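Bench log, entry 3. Co-assembly request; chain sequences pasted below exactly as received.
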Amino acid sequence: MQSSNDEAHWSRTRSLMFTHLGIWFFFGYIIHMFVKPLNSIIIPVLGFPLGFYMAAQGSLIAFVVMLFIFARQQDRIDREHGVAEDD
Amino acid sequence: MATQSEANAAFYKNLGRMYGAYTGTFLGFVVLLAILEQVGVPNKILGYLFVFFTLAVYALIGVMTRTAQVSEYYVAGRRVPALYNGMATGADWMSAASFVGMAGTLFLLGYDGLAWVLGWTGGYVLVSILVGPYLRKFGAYTVPDFMAFRFGGNFTRFLAVIVLVCCSFTYVTAQVFGTGIIASRFLGMDFTVAVYVGLAGILLCSMMGGMRAVTWTQIAQYIVLIVAYLTPIIILSTQKYGLPLPQFTYGQAIADITAREQEMLRTGLATAAGLKPHIEPFINYSPLNYFGIIFCMMCGTASLPHILMRYFTTPSVREARQSVAWSLFFIFLLYFSAPAYAAFSKLEVYTNIIGRDVTALRPWLFTWGELGLIQICGKNAVNLDAAIAACKAIAGHPGVVRLQDFVINTDVIVLSTPEIAGLPYVISGLVAAGGLAAALSTADGLLLAIANALSHDIYYKMLDPNAPTFRRLLVARILLLVVAVAAAYTASHRPADILAMVGWAFSLAMAGNFPALVLGIWWKRATTLGAICGIIAGFGLCVFYLVVTRYFPGHGVTYFGMTSLLNPVTGAPIVDVAKAMAAPNAFDTWVALTGPNAHPLANRVGWFNLNNINCGLLGMPLGFLVIYVVSLVTPAPSKEMQAYIDEIRKPRGDTILQEKS
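Structure output for the full assembly:
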């Protein structure tokens, strides 16, 4: 039924999922729990308080970047295990 | 057939050039209108030209991309490239609430409003990692399709359709309402007429071509809405800070706001109780409700059928993943600009309205005051005399506008920015066209999701599995029309809860769909009975909490142990429950939220100080738990089913579901 190659593919897929969920949780929640101390840091030149900036822009940029990286990483895993679609 | 596929290949190759030309034409059209304005064409004509030109273009695309093929109608033939699908998803996603309301919410709530910005972007991470690509590989036409296949049949399908209709219908009603508001405000139409005009626009896009037509019009609508959103603040930022990058220059505006807040407190223009500092966290929402909103909006994003079905249209699983990334990029362009709108408007209000002598108010205020959207000293600021008279009537009023004298409807923030910056009317018209594009595109996606579920899942899969193609598509179109008219009819009655319902839709989708979708893909052991019980329990608890706290608050307090929500700053109850329960109307049902018969407890009671918009926070964990426990005590799914799940997890190979042609 399920070959060892399939199992290896799925276990790598799963650990990639957990890695990205961890990063997602950090930028979605953890960092905003520290908004008050972070607000005492002012970003030079731009003038944003850091805590406000992370919720208004920083985390959003992180989400966009991680999705492009995720698409590449998952594709690499698929290719290495021969389960990717033909180009 | 050969010539048709060649024509198709040429069509996809030329997409970039086509939409490039379209964008150029649109910009040219804006310039043309600007010239017309300079030579003295009245504003009203310009407004009509804007709305009818853009509507005509969407309708033209809709008619050009009509189709008589089932797979084209339901999933656009699964040939939409990642980048374009991303743009279409962006338009599908960003509704009238995002376009018009988001900046206003941020203006009002400051830091706490960012919960919505975070929640409505971070959800795409869950879509890509947990759900979307796997559903693409499965090959469904609708989300209930997947539920039915994975969890043994039509009862699960029926439950999934109920969840889908509950969360999508309220949402689409809000969009139709939004088109009515925008059209009536800019074209001076009667609101009810405007609702039906908006409806006609929506139907022109989607009737003939289903998903295929909606995809190509949504891309056109995205271009209009993003140009319209960014143009005014780019100009404003250049005027104020000499740099056309509002997203970076508003940091200075925030520093100025904070300084001005201190000054207003010192000079008595604001009271410490009335002023909510812009960057201060957790003064409008408690931390639990703040993070609850983020979590519910994120999981809701990954469960909303009209978003998930956009990823059924890509050519491959790989492109589905890339497409989610592009979607978020295009959404990000608007969302990271919204706080700039809020900051610039707030600075303008704090420096040029608050502290100004009432007799010297700037005239742009009064256009909105006439519509009842700006109040000064407790009265609509219809004109200068009315404002002066209203302030005189307040005992001991100092004659300058104080913070507590000024009330602004949040919709005005985006719509009034062109006037604040002193820009010509053509920019206001552009903003109106953008708002309309945002509302229409979301309404199209939602209507299609509902009509497809009814025609594909209920009619074709449950009632008449032998229906020929022609009849299936006919039924799909008739249902689309019926749902659209029902939505417009509901919207024309201006239901009071309409805007809150958009937030509820996310919690409902999350409680009903998220556990079953995620466990269906990631846990082979999840069984049919487990899923059925989990959906009923999770969705049921969420609906129960919403309905009781909103419509039966007296019963909630007496029979279900609910207590008053708490003030996030002081921690005191926001309403005196004992007093309200002693009143004769304590046990009224279906109570009103505002107006003379308003119930003091509606939306103000609950468990654990949890706002009812966050009801998914109760429903979703229960859903997961029930699926887990019930699955473990029922026999494991069949070997065939487990093999199918293995197939879903591998991008290579055919989709599981195949359309019989």
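The radius of gyration of chain A is 18 Å. Residues 27 and 58 of chain A are 8 Å apart (CA to CA).
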